């Protein structure tokens, strides 16, 4: 059976009173030890400065172990290691020799280049002229002379030369101007003229790039 509520309340009060008495006596005992400890230490012949040092809580706090230093995670460590950029790849003598041979063939073809009116008007200007409406194509600005630009790029000693892309035969010449010569499909300014010729020197196409 459950005890009556008055009896249970009285029992709880007695338990609380006993607990409070216990903690009161414990506190008084602690104060008593603190009061007698200096006299006991002095009776042993210790110096008062040493007594004060023994009673000071700071040395005890130093004995408490602190948290261990955390090591950086693998992800953070890898990020630190990857800050430095890898050195640029040095080309082998064979690669340099192949590039020199390619430039020589490209220069030989450019020296005898031919630009037909059909290629200029029906292909280049039809797709990349300033009036073009072909989607996704870059356009030349209105005042840029495309024919003169092609002649300049193919004869420039500063032109960047590389092989044609996607396995197609021929060469690509590029020269970057100091002014805008075209506009990208995203309406961004373009300053480089790209000219593509075949191995016989015939101009295949030309268009502005970034």
> Which runs of at least 5 residues are low in confidence (pLDDT < 50)?
75-81
Shape: elongated
The span between the termini is 93 Å
User: How much strand content do the residues show?
Assistant: 5-15%
Number of separate domains: 2
Count the helices. How many? 7
Number of strands: 7
Oligomerization status of the protein chains: single chain
Mean pLDDT over the residues: 78
Helix coverage percent: 40-55%
Taking strands numbered 1, 2, ... along the chain, how are they ordered across the largest sheet? 2-3-6-7
Q: H/E order of the elements?
A: HHHHHHEHEEEEEE
Task: Tell me the Rg in angstroms.
Answer: 45 Å
Biggest sheet features: 4 strands, antiparallel
The secondary structure category is: alpha+beta
Structure description:
The protein has two domains: 16-59; 103-209. The chain contains seven helices and seven strands; from the N terminus they run ααααααβαββββββ. The protein has a four-stranded antiparallel sheet with strand order 2-3-6-7. Strands 1-4-5 form a three-stranded antiparallel sheet. The longest helix has 39 residues, at 5-43. 48% of the residues lie in helices and 14% in strands. The N and C termini lie far apart (93 Å).
